[in-house]
Specification:
Number of domains: 1
Helix content: 25-40%
Number of helices: 6
Oligomer: single chain
Order of helices and strands: HHEEEEHEEEEEHHH
Largest sheet: 9 strands, mixed
Number of strands: 9
Amino acid sequence: MKRFSTLIGASLMMLPLAGAALQAQDRERSTLRYADDTVDGLANVSLKGIPPALMQDAQGVAIIPRVIKAGFVLGGRFGRGVVMARQPNGDWSNPVFISLAGGGVGFQAGVQSTDVILVFKTRDSVNRILEGKDKVTLGADIGVAAGPVGRQAEASTDGQLKAEIYSYSRSRGLFAGVSLEGAGLLVDADANAAFYGLRGGRPADVLALPGSEAVEVRGLKDRLVRLAAPSPPPALTNGTFVPATQFAPPPPKR
C-alpha cells in the first residue's frame, strides 16, 4: 500500500511538468505558424519582395515574426523565430528555434511589431548561428545589409551583392530591406528541446533528425520552395494577359 501511494504521489508530481512541456510545445507551434504567415505574406508582394534569384542561391533563411518593441528609451527589439539551412540535396532543414534581441535601428518610427526575414548567402554565415555557443551580433560577427527588393534587383543578385546576410522587414503591410546592425541572434535550446523532444536542444541534433512531419514545418518548407520560384511574366508577347496560375511553380520535392 505504501508503495502504491508513493507511485500515485510521483505521478501527481509529474502532471505539472507534463503540462508545462505541452504549453512550451504549443508556443513553438505558434512561432512556426507566425513564420508561415510571414512567408505567405511575401507571396502577395512578389514584385516588391525578396528577389527569387536571391532565394534560389540562399544557404539559409531566418524568419522572426512579430518582433516587438522591448523598450521605449533605447528602442530595443525582441522576437522568437526559426532558422533553416539549405541541405546538400537542395531541400530545407528542420527549423532550429532562435531568438533575436536588439536592433532598434532601421525600423519604422512608431511601429510596435515587425516581421523580420534574414537571407544567408553563405554556408559559413549559417554555421555561425547553428554552431555558435554564444550570441552572434549582426554587423559585428557577420556582415549584414538591407536587402534589395523587386524585379529591378534581379540583376544585382548574380554575385554583385557582397554582404553575407540580407535583412528584410514587414511592418503595416509594407515590405522593405531593413538595417539590423547590432541585433543579436541566439539559438533557443529550450524551444528546440520542447518541440523536438531532444535533450539539450542542440542545433546539430535537430538537423540530424529526419524531416519533421509536423504540419507547421511541412507548410513552411513548401512556402520557401515557392518563394524561390521565378516570377511569372505578366503577359504574352502579343499583349494577351496570362493568369499567374499558368506559371505556378512545380510542387516541391517530397
